[in-house]
């Protein structure tokens, strides 16, 4: 703890903690008041503290043993250290191991009854999942989207030649290898083996094989980006590059 007023500085350590802290305190504090402030730093109860003053080169000077005395009445200089001795019976590191601190847990029923909780606020404001009308609307939109995707997917057959047209990307040709629902993301997907290594995988995603092709030749796209038709293989000139 760095003590200042007109400002001496010291570091406080503790018999309960392995760390040092540097803070500023006024010389006008009584030792009793100083202990209360140190309680927040080292974790020892103020009533169970003994304070020792050390020089900047770690030589013992004296004990700060008068609770009524002012901090500034002791020979505290810049760089000196105040060591906290705990007499509470706590073990070393006890106040550092937060896993041993008993945590308060509120039941879901009690939390539901609280008028000042975040959940109560969301309910009153009809936000997110507590807005039933909005949630029903989103569910209807998702259902409609899935229905449209299914219809688009059913119009695409495995083995058909196709062209993938995604805005901002060059058109890519290939063969449809998979049509249906997949585990990696919701909705319907079209698995395509490109004519050239313009894809992202070998027909597998997250360890599941949906179809087989060479690495970098496979890809999965949404049905709306796939056009089926007479699309012969194009020469992208990749074989001419080394």
UniProtKB/TrEMBL annotation:
<dbReference type="InterPro" id="IPR029071">
    <property type="entry name" value="Ubiquitin-like_domsf"/>
</dbReference>
<dbReference type="Pfam" id="PF14560">
    <property type="entry name" value="Ubiquitin_2"/>
</dbReference>
<dbReference type="GO" id="GO:0051010">
    <property type="term" value="F:microtubule plus-end binding"/>
</dbReference>
<dbReference type="InterPro" id="IPR036859">
    <property type="entry name" value="CAP-Gly_dom_sf"/>
</dbReference>
<dbReference type="InterPro" id="IPR045172">
    <property type="entry name" value="TBCB_Ubl"/>
</dbReference>
<dbReference type="Pfam" id="PF01302">
    <property type="entry name" value="CAP_GLY"/>
</dbReference>
<dbReference type="GO" id="GO:0005634">
    <property type="term" value="C:nucleus"/>
</dbReference>
<keyword id="KW-0963">Cytoplasm</keyword>
<keyword id="KW-0143">Chaperone</keyword>
<comment type="similarity">
    <text>Belongs to the TBCB family.</text>
</comment>
<feature type="domain" description="CAP-Gly">
    <location>
        <begin position="180"/>
        <end position="222"/>
    </location>
</feature>
<dbReference type="GO" id="GO:0043014">
    <property type="term" value="F:alpha-tubulin binding"/>
</dbReference>
<dbReference type="GO" id="GO:0007023">
    <property type="term" value="P:post-chaperonin tubulin folding pathway"/>
</dbReference>
<dbReference type="GO" id="GO:0031122">
    <property type="term" value="P:cytoplasmic microtubule organization"/>
</dbReference>
<dbReference type="InterPro" id="IPR000938">
    <property type="entry name" value="CAP-Gly_domain"/>
</dbReference>
<dbReference type="GO" id="GO:0005829">
    <property type="term" value="C:cytosol"/>
</dbReference>
<dbReference type="GO" id="GO:0035371">
    <property type="term" value="C:microtubule plus-end"/>
</dbReference>
<dbReference type="GO" id="GO:0007021">
    <property type="term" value="P:tubulin complex assembly"/>
</dbReference>
<dbReference type="GO" id="GO:0005938">
    <property type="term" value="C:cell cortex"/>
</dbReference>
<dbReference type="InterPro" id="IPR000626">
    <property type="entry name" value="Ubiquitin-like_dom"/>
</dbReference>
<protein>
    <submittedName>
        <fullName>Tubulin folding cofactor B</fullName>
    </submittedName>
</protein>
């Amino acid at each position: 703890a760095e003590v200042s007023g007109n400002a001496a500085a010291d570091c406080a350590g503790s018999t309960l903690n392995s760390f040092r802290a540097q803070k500023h305190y006024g010389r006008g504090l009584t030792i009793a008041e100083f202990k209360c402030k140190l309680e927040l730093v080292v974790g020892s109860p103020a009533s169970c503290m003994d304070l020792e003053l050390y020089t900047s080169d770690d030589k013992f000077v004296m004990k700060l043993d008068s609770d009524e005395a002012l901090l500034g009445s002791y020979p505290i200089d810049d760089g000196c250290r105040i060591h906290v001795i705990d007499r509470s019976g706590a073990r070393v590191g006890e106040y550092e191991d937060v896993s041993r601190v008993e945590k308060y847990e509120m039941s879901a029923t009690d939390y539901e009854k609280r008028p000042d909780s975040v959940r109560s606020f969301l309910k009153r404001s009809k936000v997110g999942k507590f807005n039933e009308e909005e949630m029903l609307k989103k569910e209807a939109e998702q259902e409609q989207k899935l229905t449209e995707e299914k219809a688009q997917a059913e119009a695409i057959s495995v083995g058909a030649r196709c062209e993938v047209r995604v805005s901002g990307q060059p058109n890519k040709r290939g063969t449809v290898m998979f049509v249906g629902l997949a585990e990696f993301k919701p909705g319907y997907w079209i698995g395509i083996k490109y004519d050239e290594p313009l894809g992202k995988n070998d027909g597998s995603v997250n360890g599941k094989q949906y179809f087989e092709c060479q690495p970098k030749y496979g890809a999965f796209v949404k049905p709306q980006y796939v056009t089926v038709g007479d699309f012969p293989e194009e020469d992208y000139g990749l074989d001419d590059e080394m």
